[in-house]
Design goal:
Length: about 260
């Protein structure tokens, strides 16, 4: 690929950030056929204009209050999400009970569960419920609450109180952003409350997040990596995040290392 002008690079960087949520400087340099130092200057220029958010090692979405639309999230990093779903499903034994939260990666996880036997699933995600309801040996329970037209998520205080009526073997949750210190972030207060209810009512918590979640900064705090037991992703996280995981004895599972081919 021939080198392109700064203006063309800026447009490409903004488009990639919009689609993926976060892109590392190394990936941008490879895609645009320029040096990493050039990309850093480009990202700094875009950040000064408020067009992207500059993070250590890459560029992310400028907004901390609005998530990418559901239809776009369905196709973002699709191969990575499917790979994450596959390795996370392998960690769930047959005859288990589990919560499954809202999210496109948890939906990929649900698709991978269809090879299991005799699961009991409680979810606030209509897409997850529909995916698993065809299995006659599964028991699928949908929380009460208000259904969101945008993504089939069920939210509100009724959903949270529904979760509190159960105690499961696993909670499998998604996330919108992970900071370098291990803080878990999301956009929607209702989603945060329900995910927190799942976490406190499960014996083990599994977090599923693709590479696009690293460095994103939604303003709602869901918890911390120390609150989970297993972290499933598609590429090795930064050294700092790996240290947080190690310090808190959180098992790291990387789909790429398991033989998958994520985006």
């Amino acid at each position: 690929m021939a080198s392109v002008s700064a203006e063309e690079r800026h447009r490409e960087i903004m488009e990639l950030v919009r689609l993926q949520g976060y892109v590392s400087n190394e990936d941008l340099a490879q895609r645009l056929n320029v040096a990493v130092q050039t990309i850093r200057r480009d990202v700094n220029a875009l950040a000064r204009q408020g067009l992207v958010a500059r993070h250590h090692g890459g560029a992310g979405l400028a907004s901390s209050v609005e998530n990418i639309a559901y239809a776009e999230r369905q196709v973002l990093n699709r191969n990575a999400k499917e790979a994450i779903g596959q390795i996370a499903a392998r960690a769930i034994p047959d005859n288990s009970s589990l919560f499954i939260s809202i999210g496109t990666t948890t939906e990929a996880f649900a698709r991978a569960l269809r090879q299991h036997r005799s699961l009991r699933v409680i979810t606030n995600n209509l897409h997850v419920a529909s995916t698993l309801s065809s299995r006659t040996d599964f028991q699928v329970i949908v929380t009460g609450g208000q259904v969101r037209f945008s993504d089939g998520g069920i939210t509100g205080s009724t959903a949270s109180s529904s979760i509190d009526q159960y105690r499961t073997d696993f909670a499998v949750i998604g996330i919108s952003g992970i900071e370098e210190d291990g803080t878990l972030l999301d956009f929607d207060a209702d989603e945060i409350n329900i995910a927190q209810a799942m976490m406190r009512n499960a014996r083990k918590v599994f977090l599923l997040a693709d590479q696009g979640k690293f460095g994103r900064r939604p303003m709602g705090r869901l918890g911390h990596l120390s609150n989970i037991h297993g972290f499933f992703t598609d590429r090795p996280p930064s050294a700092r995040i790996r240290q947080v995981l190690q310090d808190n004895k959180v098992q790291l599972h990387v789909a790429q290392e398991a033989g998958s081919k994520p985006d």
